[in-house]
Amino acid sequence: MSPSSLPVIDLSDFRNASSTQDQKATALAINQACTDYGFFYLTGHGIPTARLDTVISLARQFFALPLDQKNKIKRYDAGGPEGGDGARGYQGIGENVTGGRRDMHEAIDFYREWDDGGKEEGGGSNGTCKTLQGHNLWPEEPRELGEVYHEYIAQLEDVGKALVRAMGIALDLDEPETSTTTNDDAVEDSEVFVRNTERSFWVMRMIGYPKLSSPASANAEDAELSCGEHTDYGCVTLLLADPTPGALQVLHKDGKTWLNADPIPGAFVVNIGDMMERWTNGLWKSTKHRVIHRGDGYRVSVPFFYEPNFEAVIKPLKKCVERSGKEPIHGGSTYGEHLLGKIEGNFY
Ligand SMILES: N=C(N)NCCCC[C@H](N)C(=O)O
Ligand SMILES: O=C(O)CCC(=O)C(=O)O
Ligand SMILES: [Fe+2]
Q1: Which GO molecular function annotation, any one, does this entry have (predicted)?
Q2: Measured by CB atoms within 10 angstroms of the end CB, which terminus of the chain is less buried, N or C?
Q3: ipTM of the assembly?
């Protein structure tokens, strides 16, 4: 299967449309893509390609620095600076763990700044949280990285917002389906994802992948993986990657075939996360994917995870439960709980 056989969604018409009616065609295409693959390419998002290239090139420059330079912003929990217990900061090759095995990548994790209401003892919408308190650790070098990434994150938040709005329309949540109206239905309109991401607890990972040395087959017990198979945690991932082919692989619905999701210049690779699967009661799946980089160069990617608010309670939407014809797949919990559970198993 060629990489470009994953669907391509062009968001420009949706962004420029004046009515929901005009936005329906894009929404239909998104519904199809999320139902069939859980993955698609996104074009027409409005972020200039020159900006995307700069983001990749700054990441590449950072990873090329000597280790002691990179360790200046070592993750708090791994002996980084005082004043935080966060999962934020630089992690060396093999520090990240997926499915109990070390991943052959290095990375910096940035999160939305913690909202403690300006007080030590919590009080903000996030309360206190040992794992994620603390500030982002920004590299001193390359010098422009911080400023460029701040601007880029603001642009990505706009794209994420447009995308989850489109997803709400894609699920046709405004259409009354049955006469069994309860109070719960009041919140099931097409803006339900927009409301629950208003203070999106986003994550941005800046990742560097050295070439793997192990010749073992990807499925062998002891195979080295750049990033083991996993699903993403929240709503939608906007992945920017350098042009390296054959590295990111997506599991087909058949549960056996791995498809290459090679980059298309200027486009994001988008996939949905666990909270979107839960909301849709499995109508849309958070599809498994993995990275195996055996190419010659040093690969760089920068996924941005546009997630629900930390305290958002996510449970299957009634309309999706009905449509799926299945029992609710989850009783409901906050996105924050899901995230913390994941982070716990993520580090060596
Ligand atoms: N914030 C997100 N989604 N990060 C995805 C990281 C995936 C790998 C991680 N070690 C894991 O096992 O999940
Ligand atoms: O680098 C990639 O292509 C994907 C990385 C990824 O799946 C993740 O960080 O969640
Ligand atoms: Fe992922």
Answers
A1: metal ion binding
A2: N
A3: 0.98
The domain that holds 134 is classified in CATH as 2.60.120.330
| Cα 282 to ligand 3 centroid, rounded to whole Å | 18
Rounded CA separation 190/164 (Å):
9
Considering the domain boundaries, does residue 185 fall inside one?
no
How close is the Cα of 288 to the center of ligand 3, in Å? Answer: 8
Place of tokens 């958002």: 312
CB contact set of 214 (below 8 Å; sequence gap of 6+): 222, 223, 224
Ligand nearest to the backbone CA of 339:
1
Lowest-confidence region among 97-101, 206-210, 221-225: 221-225
At 18, list the tokens: 């004046």
Q: What is the pLDDT of residues 173-183, one digit of tens each?
A: 876 655 455 54
Residue 17 in any domain: the answer is yes
The reported pTM is 0.94
The residue range of the domain holding 12 is 8-176+195-347
Largest CA distance in the chain: 64
Q: What's the pLDDT score for residue 215?
A: 56
Residue 201 falls within a domain, yes or no?
Answer: yes
Q: Which atom of ligand 2 is nearest to the CA of 205?
A: 9
Total domains present in the chain: 1
